[in-house]
Amino acid sequence: MWAGAERSSACKRSDKSKKMIQIDEFSISPDHYINGERISSEEKMMDHSPIDGRELGLVSVGGQKEADMAIAAAKAAFPAWAALGPEGRLPYLEKLGHIIEENVDALAKVETNDNGSLYEASLLRVMKRGGHNIEWFAKYAVDRLPEHAVEWETARHNAKHQVVYNPSGVAVVIAPFNAPFMLGTWKVGPALAAGNTVVLKPAEWTPLTSSLLADFAHEAGLPPGVFNVVQGYGEVVGDALVKNPDVARISFTGSPETARIIGANAAKNLTPVSFELGGKSPLIVFDDADKELALDNMVEQYDNCGQVCLAGTRILVQESIADEMLERMVERAATLKVDTPMDFETDVGPLIHPEHFAKVDGMVQQAVADGATLVYGGKPHEKGGLFYEPTLFKDVDNGSQMWTDEVFGPVLVFDTFKDEAEAISKANSTEYGLAAIIFTQDEARAERVTHGVSAGLVWVNCFYVRDLDQPFGGTKNSGVGREGGIWSFDFFSDIKNVSTRKGTFR
Ligand code: NAD
Question: Residue 453 needs a FRET pair 20 to 30 A away by CA distance; which of 46, 284, 310, 333 works?
Answer without folding.
Answer: 333
